[in-house]
Amino acid sequence: MTDPDEPQAEDESPHPTAHQPDGTDSSAEWEAQIADENMIPDDPAE
């Protein structure tokens, strides 16, 4: 169990995002692990 008075570490990992070649956002599908052959992962370093 965590101490509520102790500062909690924030999730520093970027949430994965993706898009289609036409620019349509596919982030929800990426997070749900529903991908298709046209899905392009976005670079989290950007």
Describe this structure in words.
With 46 residues, the chain is largely without helices or strands. It contains 1 helix and 2 strands; from the N terminus they run βαβ. The protein has one helix spanning 27-31, and strands at residues 18-19, 40-41. Strands 1-2 form a two-stranded antiparallel ribbon.
Concise account of the structure shown:
This protein has 46 residues and is low in regular secondary structure. Helix content is 11%, strand content 9%.
Number of strands: 2
Tell me the major beta sheet: 2 strands, antiparallel
Counted by DSSP, the helix tally is 1
- Sheet with the most strands: spatial strand order: 1-2
Which stretches are low in confidence, meaning pLDDT under 50 for 5 or more residues running? none
How much strand? 5-15%
* Shape, principal axes of CA atoms: elongated
**Overall residue-averaged pLDDT value:** 79
Radius of gyration, taken over Cα atoms and rounded to an integer in Å:
16 Å
- H/E topology pattern: EHE
Structure classification: little secondary structure
Distance, first to last CA: 36 Å
Give the proportion of residues in helices. Answer: 10-25%
